[in-house]
Amino acid sequence: MIVFSAFNYVKEKQHLYSELDQRLEDAALIIPAILPKGFHHKDMNKVDLSKQQDLAITLALSEYTRRSDIVYLYTLILRDNEILYTSSSASDTELNANKLAFNYFEYYDDAAPDIAAIFKQNQSQIHESRDKWGDFRSILIPIKAGDGRVYIVGADLSIGHIDTLLNETLYFTFIISALFLLFACPLFVVLSLEPRRQVRILVKKVTKKTSELVESEAKLTSIFEYSPVGIFHYDNNGIIQKTNKRFEEILDSDRDTLIGFNMLELLEETELLNMVKQSLQGKVSVYEGPYTSVSGQRFMHLQANFVPLYSSSGEIEGGIGVYNDTTEIQRSTANLKKLSMVVEYSPESILITDINGIIEYVNPKFTAITGFTAAEVFGKKANVFRSKDTSDRVYKNMWATILSGQEWRGELKNCKKNGELFWAQVCIVPVTNDGVITHFIGIQGDVTEARIASQKISYQATHDMLTGLINRYEFERLLAQSITSAQHDTTHVLCFLDLDQFKIINDTCGHMAGDELLRQLGLLLAENIKPQDTLARLGGDEFAILMTQCGLAQAEKTAQNILELIANFQFMWEKNIFSIGASIGLAEINSQTKNTTEILIGVDSACYAAKDLGRNRIHIYHAEDELLAKRDGEFRWVNELKYALNENRFELYAQPIVSLSDPLQKRIYEVLLRLRTRSGDIVPPGAFLPAAERYNLSNAIDRWVVDHTFAWMEQHFQQLDDVDHLAINLSGASLGSNTLLNHIMQQITLHNLPPSMLKFEITETAAISNLRDATLFIKTLSEFGCQFALDDFGSGLSSFAYLKNLPVCTLKIDGMFVKDILDDPIDEAMVKSINDIGHVMGMKTIAEFVENDAIRQRLQDMGVDFAQGYGIGKPAPIDDILQPQRAGDVYNPTENLKAQAIN
């Protein structure tokens, strides 16, 4: 019996150690599954893990050891020849004493010497050792992390525990042996070997299954902990027992606060409370709606599910709650709804097709424009509304562009359902998915009316509003072409015609009579010139005829016929009959003609020479003509202006602009210019500015006004507190001058003036004739801080079309409409339209030529913002601004019309 017992003890000891070593190995290998994914890596550092995360890992490892006979689970790394803990379990006693709760990067100060060698040999090792924690049998297994970093997983069994197991085995062996000897020794010898073998096999299988179960449980624990939705478990009393990280984030609270929270007693959300109760009664409940976190700091859109949890016997053991923060999803859904509404209620027609052009969607505006309903076009090609007026080449280019992934823009002439043609401004954008075109979005707007308006605008921009003849700008363009063609041995003749006695009719019967005379005379002249000749109204009572392919002798005969035609013309107005005459200047356009300025100066001089000779006659321009040499025409102003600039004989005046709606509005003035002759007389700008503009002196005059106004403002700045801004007029020539543009900004800076106190006025005609330069000029100074006003708005007929392209803040309504608004409903309608358009575009409006209180009141009723004119205040020397009581004179109706016409 002693021999058998000793032999059996040795065998059982070997078996026990083998089984315990297997347990150590299984326990050590389960550690990576418990640790967070990617926990070990080359660059790990002590600051990577918070105290809370460190403690969570210690508790997870301790939970495992609590369910087994393993004493410790831990992981080690070797850094700088020192062995460091990265994780470790702890006993309940140690945890309660707050020992070994935090192990991340803790120094292993009692490590066995052979542990360091394991990192280098990269082989697992089982050994028995003694340290300050006791005597242990340990397994140390080196493992490579994802990035190649080697770390050790370890598990410890207490030697005392092993000795106990061995003693139990020994005692058991003695008892069995004794029984065996007493009762069944023979049978035992025969039968004991095979069952023992089967038992060992069974034990191994059970051990393996146990290990797999532990590993599976660890994986499920990891899945639960790091789930992207919040999960929590509560018992039958509604008390939360377990939570995961996402649940804590959603509630903006920590685990210690949540564990033990009694939802049945403390939950304030009535709807959520009812759902918890229903789940404890075996019902599944779903909540979706707004939610405020426990801390009160987070507001979200919550989706919550409450599911009852059943035991193996079918009884409810509490429930599982799943929380999901769907705020971003709700926001995205709301944005999609907004975008859908934008498309649905877009003022533009929108359709979506597949890659082959088959229509999949159209918005209501599509139906409104084309007449086709969605049902009528779904599944059909987008060319269902194509017209024959657009060439195939356009469509081929369009398809080539969009199939290459680029946006296509253009105008197409399409056909409505009823057969009516319309112009569409079309934009087609490819829609891609991972670089592959899947759909096309087509946006089209009906621009038929805009095209018609554009054609009208194009016509109006080149024609005189009153007579329908081409205007000065178009005429000068054609004249330049004729000068170019005359360089190749071809001659033309320019005829300049100025009416005699026109001012008498204008002053006697008024502007309406003068306008009617000009209209009738324009028709008369147009009917009596050759088809190849060009007739234009240059302005005022001046006309010009470009006689192409014509010599001087033939032109003189034609001019003589025109003189007779005008002399025989009888103009009737309100029972009065008037006769007029004309003075005509002729100038030949030949290879010696240099430019339009030269030929216009010559023919203008010849015309005024005819006036000097007695009017109603013709004078032909010759360079050597003594009469023309004596007659300086506008050249006398050219010389006078040059001298005035050199001698500083210009003077600044100012005219008030008042608010019609805000009595507290600060004062506003327009800066005006006067010329003092050497004899001391004051000359208004209407007398000399036309010559300045024609002979390229306007830029220099503008510069003088800018410099002297800025200097005056700097000198008197302390006295201008109640002045909002001063408005300075700029000529058309200045709009194309980068030099003047830079000079203005330099002077504003030099004189330390607020740019907002400066407004520059440019005429509508000047802006439109040089739109690109004007836009750049205005934009640059506007960004600098200055303001801009469009002067004489409405006079050019092209106003509304070009207005959106000019970044101005104020419209000055042309006085020709304002002065007669009390008597002329058309003028009143024009003023109202301009005011409404200005306000729609966010601009302020100023009415000019406000002659009396009645006009002022009418303008105020219309909603016009500001008024200027003799009925508001007369121009006065600029120093009068410093004395507000003298800033404007009382309205004088007898002086108004004539005075404003020359200002």
Main attributes?
903 residues, alpha+beta, eight-stranded mixed beta barrel, six-stranded antiparallel β-sheet, 45% helix, elongated, disordered C terminus
Structure description:
With about 900 residues, the protein is of the alpha+beta class. The chain is built from 32 helices and 33 strands. The strands form six sheets. The chain has an eight-stranded mixed β-barrel, surrounded by five helices. Helix 1 (about 1-35) packs across helix 5, helix 1 packs parallel to helix 6 and helix 17 (about 500-510) packs antiparallel against helix 18 (about 510-525). The protein is elongated and about 165 Å long. The N and C termini lie far apart (about 140 Å).
Note the topology.
Blueprint (H helix, E strand, L loop, with lengths): L1 H33 L16 H16 L5 E8 L2 E7 L3 H5 L9 E2 L6 H8 L3 E7 L2 E11 L5 E9 H33 L1 H33 L4 E5 L5 E4 L1 H7 L3 H4 L4 H4 L3 H11 L4 E8 L6 E12 L5 E10 L1 H18 L4 E6 L4 E4 L1 H7 L3 H4 L14 H12 L4 E8 L5 E13 L2 E11 L1 H15 L9 H14 L6 E9 L1 H8 L1 H16 L7 E6 L2 E6 L4 H16 L2 E4 L2 E4 L1 E9 L6 H17 L5 E3 L5 H5 L4 H13 L2 E10 L7 E10 L5 E2 L1 H10 L3 H18 L7 E7 L8 H13 L7 E6 H6 L1 H14 L2 E7 L5 H5 L6 E4 L1 H4 L6 H16 L3 E4 L5 H10 L3 E2 L8 E2 L15 H10 L1
Parallel strand pairs: 22-23, 25-27, 27-28, 28-29, 29-30, 30-31, 31-32
Antiparallel strand pairs: 1-2, 1-6, 2-3, 4-5, 5-6, 7-8, 7-11, 9-10, 10-11, 12-13, 12-16, 14-15, 15-16, 17-19, 17-22, 18-19, 20-21, 24-25, 24-32, 24-33, 25-26
Helix pairs in contact: 1-5, 1-6, 17-18, 24-25
